[in-house]
Amino acid sequence: MEQPSWYPRWRTLCDRLAKNGYSSLSGVERVWVNVRALIDSTNNGGLISFFYNSYADTLPDCLEALETLGASDVHAQVQRVCKLFGKSVPLNTKERNEVINSWPDRGSSAQALDELLNEIDQFLYERFDDLEARLEAFLARAGIAT
User: Fold this and answer.
1) CB within 10 Å: which end of the chain, N or C, has fewer?
2) What crossing angle do the helices spanning 107-141 and 27-43 adopt, rounded to 10°?
3) d(CA 144, CA 105)
4) Statement: the pTM of the whole predicted model exceeds 0.85
5) CA–CA distance, 120 with 123 (Å, rounded to integer)
6) Which residues contact 29 (CB under 8 A, 6 or more apart)?
């Protein structure tokens, strides 16, 4: 499969992120990083993997990025998982995983949770092509990727 035209810029951005940290990114780059993290982590393990890993450390920015792209349907699904955390989602991996690990893993409550997460994942998988298109159009308008 051929790499998208924006891929070289993406690799450069990832290298800079690893070297200089999230604070070194522009607003447009933050939209790119947050939305890619959401798509890629969900495709590699369901939306819950976004929360298991460090991607959700910038959850408020991710939610804002989805709004920037006009992806309110995806935003609403992410919020459904956020509600499982209670009052607020911890912004560090260790604390999020402590909450996730406290969720039931047996019985009808666990089954209901699994069904909810599967429903959300299926919803997202069906909308990711549109989200990808919105992201690419946003990046093209910003002159970052064509």
Assistant:
1) N
2) 140
3) 44
4) yes
5) 5
6) 13, 144
- Where in the chain are the domains? 7-140
Binning the chain into helix, strand and coil, the percentages to the nearest 5 are 75, 0, 25
How would you write 17-34 as a 3-class SS string? HHHHCHHHCCHHHHHHHH
Give mean pLDDT, residues 80-95.
96
Show Cβ contacts of residue 89 under 8 Å, excluding neighbours closer than 6 positions: 51, 56, 59, 82, 96
pLDDT by residue (tens digit) across 106-130? 899 999 999 999 999 999 999 999 9
Task: Give me the amino acid identity at 80.
Answer: R
